[in-house]
Design goal:
Elements (H helix, E strand, L loop, with lengths): L2 E5 L2 E4 L4 E8 L6 E8 L6 E7 L5 E2 L8 E6 L4 E6 L8 E9 L12 E2 L3 E6 L1
Parallel strand pairs: 2-11
Antiparallel strand pairs: 1-3, 3-8, 4-5, 4-9, 5-6, 7-8, 9-10, 9-11
Length: 124
Amino acid sequence: QVQLVESGGGSVQAGGSLRLSCAASGHTYNTYSMAWFRQAPGKEREGVAALYSGASGTYVPDSVKGRFTISQDSANNTLYLRMNSLKPEDTAMYYCAVAVGWAPLNRHDEFKYWGQGTQVTVSS
């Protein structure tokens, strides 16, 4: 059973930075997708970054490109999301998720495992 625990959220002023962490355990899949999603009250869940096993690389949508970076520390089974130049509209609960195999970022229903989320609040 895969378990995901996010941390690193908090309150920051606009223009600031945060780094979210996702500690993964029980994850033994050779081919997988790991991603960060966010959801603000009253809004749909939105994928903000994905990392794919093997040589499939990373993907960041245009909405956060240039500000958000996803990375992985394989030795420690930890996924990161570095967020720079934060804006008030980035305020949301941020979730880490894992899919078995390749899953597109716009299909959150294909991600089987989810963490409990970490809150990010950006004030103007």
